[in-house]
Amino acid sequence: MFTALKEVNGPAKVTVFTSGPEFDTSSIHVLAKTFGSATVRVRRFDADALMAYEKTEPAARFPAASMLPLFLPWLVEGKCLFVDADTLILHDIAQLFETDLNGCLIGACRSYSHALSIRRAFDRRFFPPQIYKRRREKFKEKAERLGYSDVRSLEKNFFSSGIMLFDTDSIRIMDTNHTLSSVKKLEHLWVNGLVLPDMDRLNQFFKDRVHYFDQRWDVPRDVSSLNRLYAPPDLWREIVAAVEDPGILHFSSIYMRKPWKRPWYAGSRYRLYRRACQEVHMQTGIDVATMFDARE
């Protein structure tokens, strides 16, 4: 939130969703006062509607609060830019908000990590077939469940849910039965060990109705030069260019290595995160590093 308000030029309206009444919102209000041109409000995401989901297998790994994007069209009106909490914003995201979706319902970036995983599973140059046979079958099952014609279509079109622009008015008009937020059969989409259940539903529901952003708006935490061996060539070119001038750094990780749980010396991107924490402390007195036990 600090980096978003710092980079935006002009007034901004921000809604921070929390997942429980025990969340201390005082620091959010203190932070908001630092930026006089910003209107910030805090809302609690009521997860009571997800009681059925809590009893499913995915819920053991992915809490109900992570399902928030499925409900956003009914929580806000007009255009809504959703940004994950585990991000660092380095450029004005107003230009994302003002993007013309050209008739699409949402805007998002291709999932670099997902495309990479698919290429690794199907690339026979480096691994014996028996090693990734089971994973290949999982991706085939995933493509079928989400309605893609084949795995390559899944690789090319699967998008990340970390940064998304919603045309909420159009979504509500189209989805009168609240199909997007129905979680009764959400576990049917999820293939154990592959991606996230909310991302699966979003990709199934918005398939062929996505405007793809430049990859600089969702730059992953780790980009190794070795990944060019597996990444789709077009996506790799975008990622390499994006790393040079990222708009948003996304600290997503399948190992849950969030920046506030890692020491600051672990890479240049973590140093950027540390610098942002220091700026928050200097301007507001909020010791962000201590709040999130940064060195644990």
Structure description:
By secondary structure, the chain is of the alpha/beta class. It has a single domain, classed as Spore Coat Polysaccharide Biosynthesis Protein SpsA, Chain A, CATH 3.90.550. Helix content is 39%, strand content 15%. It has helices at residues 2-7, 26-34, 51-54, 68-71, 94-97, 112-122, 129-146, 151-157, 168-174, 186-189, 197-205, 233-244, 268-284, 288-291; strands at 12-18, 38-44, 79-83, 87-89, 106-110, 159-167, 210-212, 219-220, 248-250. The strands form three sheets. It has a four-stranded mixed beta sheet. A three-stranded mixed beta sheet has the order 4-9-8. It has a two-stranded parallel ribbon with strand order 1-2. The longest helix is centred in the middle third of the chain and has 18 residues, at 129-146. It is globular, with a radius of gyration of 19 Å.
Helix and strand layout, with pairings?
Elements: H1 2-7, E1 12-18, H2 26-34, E2 38-44, H3 51-54, H4 68-71, E3 79-83, E4 87-89, H5 94-97, E5 106-110, H6 112-122, H7 129-146, H8 151-157, E6 159-167, H9 168-174, H10 186-189, H11 197-205, E7 210-212, E8 219-220, H12 233-244, E9 248-250, H13 268-284, H14 288-291
Parallel strand pairs: 1-2, 5-7, 8-9
Antiparallel strand pairs: 3-6, 4-9, 5-6
Helix pairs in contact: 6-7, 6-8
